[in-house]
User: Which sequence fits this backbone?
């Protein structure tokens, strides 16, 4: 079976059930940790499901429908640009019971101007709140930009906007392993410029909590070898359509080469 198809993703979801992992949205996780709401304790074994909708939002709808069929709720983060921001797709995913969040890149879009970026963030946040009462946001890496949009929070506080969580700040990575399909593999931290947790990565490698293929994760989840996990996927990668699957494969291989060059130049 090919990796990065919806069929393979379904097997990953089934492994969570077999391994007795409870699925949480980012919003649910942050609310529990902060004592917001009735639930005060995290499950004994859990995963946090996050999806960054960078482009091809209809692929995200297909993923969301599959999760809903299996009784799973996940977090879907949409960019404000037209390649991601499709109102019909956002409405469909929200109607399935999933969380909608803002995948922000405002420092990149505003050329590093803090005031313009914050105003842009607030405007985009209000836009997405017409579809869902957005309470979490998540940085878009924007690898070709020299600006890290998380720098916005050096001057401002997202809590002032009724945001309760940003995964890079509010997930306890001393207890939660981060697995992302950045680079179209699960060990693409060598390609990623920003979507990584460098201070924890070596510990995860030492504990054999890094993987290349989805099937390796499936086996590890079924065998209870992993602690809590934050999964991040990019839905445009996950399709059963052969043509779209091949297109994403070639595009990502090219991006990985570019990211490697950029990482070398920046000294990462």
Assistant:
């Amino acid at each position: 079976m090919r990796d990065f198809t919806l069929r393979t993703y379904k097997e990953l979801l089934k492994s969570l059930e077999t391994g007795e992992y409870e699925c949480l949205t980012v919003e649910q996780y942050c609310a529990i940790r902060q004592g917001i709401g009735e639930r005060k304790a995290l499950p004994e074994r859990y995963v946090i499901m996050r999806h960054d909708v960078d482009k091809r939002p209809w692929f995200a709808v297909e993923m969301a429908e599959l999760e809903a069929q299996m009784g799973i709720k996940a977090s879907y983060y949409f960019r404000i640009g037209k390649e991601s921001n499709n109102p019909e797709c956002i409405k469909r995913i929200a109607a399935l019971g999933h969380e909608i969040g803002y995948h922000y890149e405002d420092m990149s879009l505003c050329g590093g101007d803090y005031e313009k970026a914050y105003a842009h963030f607030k405007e985009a946040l209000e836009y997405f709140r017409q579809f869902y009462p957005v309470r979490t946001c998540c940085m878009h890496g924007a690898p070709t930009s020299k600006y890290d949009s998380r720098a916005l929070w050096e001057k401002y506080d997202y809590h002032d906007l009724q945001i309760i969580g940003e995964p890079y700040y509010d997930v306890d990575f001393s207890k939660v392993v981060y697995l992302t399909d950045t680079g179209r593999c699960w060990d693409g931290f060598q390609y990623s410029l920003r979507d990584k947790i460098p201070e924890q990565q070596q510990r995860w490698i030492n504990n054999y909590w890094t993987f290349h293929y989805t099937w390796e994760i499936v086996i590890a989840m079924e065998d209870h070898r992993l602690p809590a996990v934050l999964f991040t996927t990019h839905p445009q990668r996950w399709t059963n359509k052969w043509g779209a699957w091949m297109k994403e494969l070639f595009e990502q291989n090219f991006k990985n080469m570019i990211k490697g060059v950029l990482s070398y130049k920046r000294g990462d």
